[in-house]
Structures are given as structure tokens and as C-alpha cells.
Amino acid sequence: MPENLASAVTNGIRVDVRTTYVEDESSPNHSYFVYLYQIEITNESEEEVQLLRREWTIVDGMAQKRLVEGDGVVGKQPVIVPGQTHRYVSGSNLPTPVGMMKGKYLMVRLSDQQQFWIDIPSFTLYVPHLDN
Length: 132
Description:
Elements: E1 4-10, E2 13-21, E3 33-43, E4 49-60, E5 65-71, E6 79-80, E7 85-94, E8 98-109, E9 114-126
Antiparallel strand pairs: 1-2, 2-3, 3-7, 4-5, 4-6, 4-8, 8-9
């Protein structure tokens, strides 16, 4: 079950993120912690858009920063019509039991080919039982 929710709206595009710690794939004794994040990108604008690129900043619990960028998301550059939501799941691993991610997507409005960035909200990755 997802642990937390982060949300942001930029230029009529909503990005919701839910995260889950994957205990079965993690190895705390080897400083290896695996997290899944579920992304929903909802087009609340009146224009058809396409996701072209992603840029992520991943920061572990020791403040070590990692940048990840590339075309599309999980091998796709989805077109999202008004009112539609594109969903995908991806993952990340950290050497610490807590960290954070944030980022942005490069979108293009298909009616006039205008490109713009939308925010991926900052969200925390953490091992749930550590907060007790």
C-alpha cells in the first residue's frame, strides 16, 4: 500500500506521486533500500499535451545527490488529452533508509508545439517502521 502522497499542478497538468518501500527487494544490512513510486499525470487543461522528457534529482539520507534524465517515462512519451490521466510505476534505490526525490517533465502542447516544464513534487522515500 502506498505510504504517502505528494501533488503539484503546473500549467493545468497535475502530478500525483505515491511511494512504497519494497522490503522484499531491500537489504538493509548492505545499505540497499528499494522504493517504488506511482505517478499519475492528469491533464486538467483544455489542450492535448505530450510528455517528452524527465529530469529527476534524488537525494539520499547523507545528502548525496544523483541526477537522472532522459526521454519520456518508462520507455513512453505519452499523449494526454484533456481530462485523461497517464499512470506509471517506476523505482529507485538508495544507500540509506530515507531520502527524497523531485523533478520535472518537459511537455509539448500539440496545438502549437509550445514546450513547457511541469513540476514533479518533492516526495520522501523512507522505511515506514523507522518513524515509530
